[in-house]
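Please, structure for the following, as tokens.
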Amino acid sequence: MDSWLRQNPQVRTIRVAASDLNGQPRGKRMPARFAERVLSEGTRFPMSSLNLDIWGEDIEDSPLVYEAGDRDGVLMPTERGFMPMPWLDTPTGLLPIWMFHEDGRPYDGDPRHALSAVIDRYKARGLTPVVAVELEFFLIDDSTNRLQIPPSPRSGKRRIAGEILSLRALDQFDRFFTELYDACEAMDIPADTAISESGLGQFEINLMHQADALRAADDAWLFKMLVKGLARKHGFAASFMAKPYPDYSGSGLHMHFSVLNEAGENVFNDGSDKGSATLRHAVQGCLQSMPGLTLVFAPHANSYDRMVPGSHAPTGMGWAYENRTVALRIPSSGPAARRIEHRVAGGDVNPYLMMAAVLGGALMGIEDAQEPPTPITGNAYDADLPQIPGDWETAIAAFERSDAVRRIFARDLISNYLLTKRQELRYMRDLSPQERVEIYLDAV
């Protein structure tokens, strides 16, 4: 029996959950007395359950459903083991799982396996990515058709403004954030700094860097689940959707990464302020792969509302030192901490696919050893840069024809993802902006 369950005998029910391609947790509820069986034997879902649209519906023309008999995959526990679900009223254990074939082969349609495969390619070169993420989200009162910031539990008032780095904005929701940090501690999620951001009721929490990219993605996936669940417990919504308010900046999921060699040395560091040739090669790989991978960084119709000039989200494919208007920023740091910040992804991404895309693009650049263009200075919105695909349909087409995508992801995952996004595109065309918000608010 898992040690956490032994230490928490009050837990009577458990959940087992895996991430689908949209980052949605798909799983089962069962009595805790069956936990030992799940730990040793796993459980079964249809393979198609990891390839559903944002509504949770089957993909109409997916070969996984009728053509293949909707056969099962075997889902086994990840390295994480059981953890609490602090947003529920009753003590409950959550067991993250991932999908395999009957013969033990990883199922290529599982996004966690996509990231694991990229990490394995780094390992084969004697390299280890070090990853940290910054997650932005909104606290929202969605009790009416008009979205607004929830009233402060302390004052009962609503602050109708974005309040950048405001302690007052954080203190208005002190009880929520205190419980959130306690829950992160209980779930072993390395939550660090919290700040008030520029959007209406928008906040950001950083997760600490670690030399285990798979665990970093687990942390981000679990953190999103936790924040949304805990907010509902407090009587409001939390949303990672890219752009809930047209007049305020949207939410990003920025990823910082460096790469260690077998001696534990940062290969982006050459002792200078500019970084090594390997850093520049990784930058070029990220830039070169960016058009095709935009569909991973901006996976939904609402994602593209965030990516407009002057909105604190990049629109051009450029890089720079210490400049937050670009897609790829090299932050100021000591040489040993030299790293790349990838700023394209929205908060609505699947963290597993996003990290696989970023690290896969960087590795492609390291393998090809090509130099990037000159880093820009000044405002990237005013620079003459090649543009990131600016709408969903263009991004879908770019993903399909991208050689970089085929170098990073398995064929079946590419096919499944395209089928999913095309179905969502067809359905979303008939919906109003308000109806789209209602779909994305809780889902992403």
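The longest strand covers residues 128-140. The radius of gyration is 21 Å.
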